[in-house]
Each structure stands twice: as structure tokens, then as C-alpha cells.
Amino acid sequence: MTQLNNLSDFVTQVRRDILRMVHKVNSGHPGGSLGCAEFFVALYSTILNRKKGFDMNGNREDIFFLSNGHISPVFYSVLARVGYFKIEELSTFRLLDSRLQGHPTTHEGLPGVRIASGSLGQGLSVAIGACEAKKLNGDPNLIYSLHGDGELQEGQNWEAIMY
After folding, report:
1. Which helix (H) or strand (E) holds 125?
2. Structure confidence at residue 2 (pLDDT)
3. Domain ranges, residue 155
4. Which pLDDT tens digit goes with each residue over 5-41?
5. Cross-strand bridge partners of residue 65
6. Model's pTM, two decimal places?
7. Number of domains in the chain
8. How far is residue 47's CA from residue 63's CA, in Å, rounded to a whole number?
9. Cα 90 vs. chain centroid, distance in angstroms?
10. What are phi and psi of 26, to 5 degrees?
């Protein structure tokens, strides 16, 4: 029961982070972020087999791809709270020269971010490609990805689903 209480407290803190980030800049997508808080907390706290440091290649560890990048506040909050970067950096969300922009990008050098996710419908194809790479390399670890409902309108997504 203690672990469940800790996860519940973690979710509450993540939701506070989301509201603070979005309110400060009066910009962002709080609804989707708030709705995915439990998913991200469970994934990063109990499910993902991940290394202590961040390796962009993801060799011998599970990998997560965020396809619907507009829910970046929840992603950033959880990444910070599990140790990928300092929690204080959350206060720079969507500010000029911040690594925490509205959609996560790899060129910002933010640990935990493996793909740029501004264009909806591409995440599943990336995730399937990563699965194939792990299979070819004999890496038994898993790939996880999250997608938004709007992505189902994208033809590329359906091609990936039918793969």
C-alpha cells in the first residue's frame, strides 16, 4: 500500500507541475497532460527497464517514444522527477532559449527525449522501426509509445498499424 500511496503522491506532484508550467506562460495543453499523468508515472516508476544515465541509442534498455508531443508538460515533469534533469528547469517551460519547448525535440539535448514530436502520426512508424532494430540486434528490451486520438486521421499511422 505504501508504494501505491507514493505513486499517488507522485501523480499529484506531476499534476501540480503541469498546472504551474502552463499557467506561468499562459500557453500549452493542460488537458491531455493532466489526463496522462498516471500513465507516465506508472511507465517511468514501475514499467520501463531503463538505465540510470541517458543513452540516445537505447541499447539494452526499454525505450519510450512520445508521438503526441503537445502533451509535453507531463513528459517534462516526469522526466525531471525521475532524474533526467533538474526539477528547477521546469520553470523555463516554453520560454525563449529553454530546452522545454511546446513539443519535445532532440536538438535541445534534453535527456529522455529520443524523437521530435511536432508532426502527428509519425511516432508509431518510429517505434516500429526501433522494434525492428532491437530485433535485428538481438536486444530483448521493449519499445513503448503514446499516441493521441487525432493521429488516427493520419495515413502514415494506419500504414504503421497494418504493418
Report:
1. helix 123-136
2. 53
3. 2-161
4. 899 999 999 999 999 999 999 999 999 999 999 999 9
5. 145
6. 0.94
7. 1
8. 11
9. 14
10. 50, 40
